[in-house]
Amino acid sequence: MKISEGLKVIEKGWIIKPKGYRVKYQKRINSELITEYSPDLEDKPLDSDVVAWRYAWKLYMATKSDSPEISDGELINIFVVDDSDNPVKYYTTNQLEVFNLREINV
Amino acid sequence: MEDQITKLERIRDIMMLHGIELITAVAVLIIGILVAKWINRVLKRSLSRLTANATVVSIVCNTIFVLMLVAVVLVSAVQAGLQVRPIVRLFVLFSLITVGVIVVFRPFLPSLPFKVGNTVKIGDLLGKIEATTFLNTRLRTFDGKTFFVPNRQILNDIVINYHFSENRRIKINVGVRYDQDLMKAKQVLESIMIEDPRVIAKPAPVVYVLNLTNNCVELGGRCWVDNMKYWVTKCDLLEKTKYRFDNEGIAIAFPQLDVNYYNKSDSLVCTDQNRLQGHGGSFKSTIEEDRMG
Q: Nearest-CA residue of chain A relative to B198?
């Protein structure tokens, strides 16, 4: 195998480079849980998982409530996904993480 | 005295004959210039919203402004009763001479090594170019200060234009303790760079062992990113390196100095902590130097 072919194998098999990141969350609208993304799927995704996780955390801090019920405007199950909608590990812990975890259907 | 009276009478006669035309021409000129300026301002604002390229906006607006001024002058001349054809000929002749001079002498004219909107370093000043004139350049530093730098100083100084090349290399240097798994540290650092979407694939990221210092094995990660994303990517990669090394159990080294004391009666010279712990007669003191040391 030539080196160029070897590099192609490495590129396909090992290097997983997402094209961008989005924050995925759920919110209650008319007693129904709706899943949304930020930025929207039509918009350009964020190019940094660090920025995406910071954004997710800020969304959580801005909308969290102490009540056990999901209040209006509260965002739940907030986490970061890549362009293929796969959950992205939180870079500080290298584990999958969800802010304001309320449901199991994450 | 008589001469002055004659002159005044002549002016009066001219005003009687062409006064209305002249006043109308001046009014057209003033109003035309004001309207052209207003249109230019509105156009500049609208185009700035449409495109981020400040140079294109500036060229388009200035060209339209000059054409509007020419039109205003022509209309004003017609109002004043002048012949349009000679003025148009004069204007065309003047334009051709100007263009010819610029084309011929342009290679000999010193030009500034940047455009509006570029991020540059001129001497000790790092910032974004906001505007350039014949005399000076307006530069805004990233802490919000605006500098007016004389162009002659720029032409005599070393200028780094960060927009000149498309990509830029990031250096991530990390010191790893000698007792750590070096290969694992290299792999982790390389993975961090490879996985980031902003890091370009070719040339591929690499990790070198740069140095074996007194305190650590110095690793050097090198990768290339888009010039526009250099700073944020570098900060993100450094942050991720710290966290990932912590998670993988790789200890980042810090400057330190081990001082070992031993009793003369004890024949065994101890050099590391494990061995010291096994010999009650010896003790060890570790002095951690601060980073300034």
A: A47
